[in-house]
Amino acid sequence: MWYNPIMMWLLRSPLHGMLSGNTMIITYTGRKSGKTFSTPVNYVRDGDVLWAVSFRQRTWWRNLHDSPVTLRVQGKDVTGVATAMTDQQEVADCLRAYLRKTPQIAKYIGVGLDASGQPEPQDVAEAAKTRVMVRVQLSGS
């Protein structure tokens, strides 16, 4: 994507504070190529776990199977182990929890919120068909 280099520059710069509360850089090694790749992704923190959502059609997450990663989070480099979850029910469960923490992004994922602000179950199930969840367990935690 054309804006990824701009996002990565900003996240590595002293200006990172504008974005780093919910956007990080994840650096991982390609399973087949052995090359190192970095990409910016939105995240939600839950204690010592960071969660990210991606479209199934994207490819970066396919490299993450209990894989070591380096993250640039809020101006600091940290390490962790990342796993991509693809099972639709598991994705739906994780997506529901993700949206409870960040209901403001529900509209971008195509999920409506009920009167009490909870994600609509049918919308979450639909979104899980086209999304994956990435779980990063931070090291030292």
Description:
By secondary structure, the chain is α+β, with helices and mostly antiparallel strands. The protein has a single domain (4-138), classed as Roll (Pnp Oxidase, Chain A). It has 4 helices and 7 strands; from the N terminus they run αββββββαααβ. The chain has helices at 4-12, 88-101, 106-109, 121-130; strands spanning 23-29, 36-42, 44-46, 49-55, 65-73, 76-85, 131-138. A 7-stranded antiparallel beta sheet has the order 2-1-5-6-7-4-3. The longest helix is centred in the last third of the chain and has 14 residues, at 88-101. The chain starts with a helix and ends with a strand.
Set down the secondary structure blueprint.
Elements: H1 4-12, E1 23-29, E2 36-42, E3 44-46, E4 49-55, E5 65-73, E6 76-85, H2 88-101, H3 106-109, H4 121-130, E7 131-138
Antiparallel strand pairs: 1-2, 1-5, 3-4, 4-7, 5-6, 6-7
Q: What is the helix fraction of residues, given as a range?
A: 25-40%
Total DSSP E strands: 7
Structural class: alpha+beta
Q: Give the number of helices.
A: 4
Elements, N to C (H/E): HEEEEEEHHHE
Major sheet, described briefly?
7 strands, antiparallel
Uncertain ranges: none
Q: Tell me the β content.
A: 35-45%
- Order the strands across the largest sheet as they lie in space: 2-1-5-6-7-4-3
Q: Which superfamily, in CATH terms, is the homologous superfamily? A: Electron Transport, Fmn-binding Protein, Chain A
Question: What is the gist of this entry?
Answer:
The protein is α+β, with helices and mostly antiparallel strands and 141 residues long.
